[in-house]
Every structure is written in C-alpha cells, then in structure tokens.
Amino acid sequence: MSTADKKAIKAKSKNLPQRKTSAQPEKDYERHFAFLQQNPARFQIFRERVFDQGVHPENFVDYECAFAAQTIQPLYPRSILDIGSYRHFILGLLAHYPVTTLDVRDRGPLLANETVLTGDAKNLTLPDQSFDLVLSLCSLEHFGLGRYGDEIDFQADQKAIREMIRVLKTGGHLIFSTTITRAKPAIGFNAHRIYDYSMLRDFCAGLILKDERFYSHRLKGFCSLEEITTDRQGWDVYCGCWQKP
After folding, report:
1. φ/ψ of residue 201, rounded to 5
2. Looking at the domain 60-243, which fold is it?
3. Cβ burial, residue 217 (10 Å; 0-12/13-18/19+)
4. How does pLDDT run across 89-101, given as a tens digit for each residue?
C-alpha cells in the first residue's frame, strides 16, 4: 500500500462518525444488569463482565494478513501451497482458491477445495515447479526448534526456504513473513529465531524482489527498515513478496 493510499484511508476514517463510549462503564453495567434481571424476557441472565471500549485493537498479524491479501489479489494464482500460515487467513483464502496446506501436526480439511499434507517443511514430498504461489506467514522462524513437535534441526529454516523455492514454478511468487531486528540475530529457544535483514535477503538469493514491508511494534504499523527495533531480544516483522525468475 502506497503512502498516499494510507493517508487517504486515515483522512477518511477521521470523517466517520465516532461511537460514544461510556465514561463510567462499571456504574452503567450495574444499572443495565439490574434492568435485565427484572426484564429477562426469554433469557437467563448472569454476570460476565467485558469492557472493550475505545479504539479497535490491531496488531502485527493484521498487517501481515493485509500484506498477503493485497499481494495475492492481482496475481490470481491457479495453484497455492501454504506452509504454516494463520489458519483463519487460509480459510478466507479458500473462499477464492484451492489451496494445498502443509502442517507438521496432523489435521483434516474443513473445505472441499483444501488438500492437507502432514509433513516437514524442510523436506517437501512434492515435485519441482508445482505451484504458482507459495505462502508462509510467521512460520519460518519456528522450523526445527521443536516447538510444534518437529525434530530439532537448527538449519531447518534454510532448508525450508530452499524447498519452497524448489516447488515454485518459474515466474511464481513466494510470499512470507517472519521476525526481523536491527540488533544481532538471535534464537529465543524454543519459541523462534529473530533474523536481521541481511539473513532474509540471503534466503531469497536468486529471486526477484517484488515488494516488502516492515512492521514496528513500537510504531504499531508499517515503517522503514531504519525504524525496526534494535532491542537485543526484541523483534518486529518482515513481509516480503519474491518472484522466481
């Protein structure tokens, strides 16, 4: 999304009518609860206090999925392989495309146009040049650390990227997101790796960069590479789209 597009969206949102929120939610809660107890209609009434007023929450997952959706939309891929992306994003993608999904943990398909494979991303049992699009959101950093029951292999991320590129057709696109830092790369064992930019570029050597974005937790949105965290144990998010020549 261009800077001009983002400014236009922000300007439009400022002009939308704002919903008023209560300044005293606890007091209002008791009043409304008492009313419901006296007027239950056909409902059973019980307490379950939840206050989600204010600005709608956003986090890095929203931005990763938005990047992927925006990037996929003009490509119209005929064949898609997903490796470990957010399940709800894939379910939405299945509304438009058949998708082959790979997961190290066993599960079944929820829709008829999903083909589910159980296996290891570093050793795909798939032919060369099989897919127009390979998608992997927030998965690469976890491979080979044992978090999801996969075997320990500290080079599994490198092997998995090579496999993704291998099964990608000439002219096809690799879209992935992962952790990034401007500090020294790190492993928070056994949660995830944290990469620097040069490592991610090395992973994609031989591919053509089509688009990339950086997400900052501090700024709560897309940012420049120079604004990525330098926290020694912190991380932000890289989103990239690369084409196989």
Report:
1. -65, -35
2. Rossmann fold (3.40.50)
3. middle
4. 999 999 999 999 9
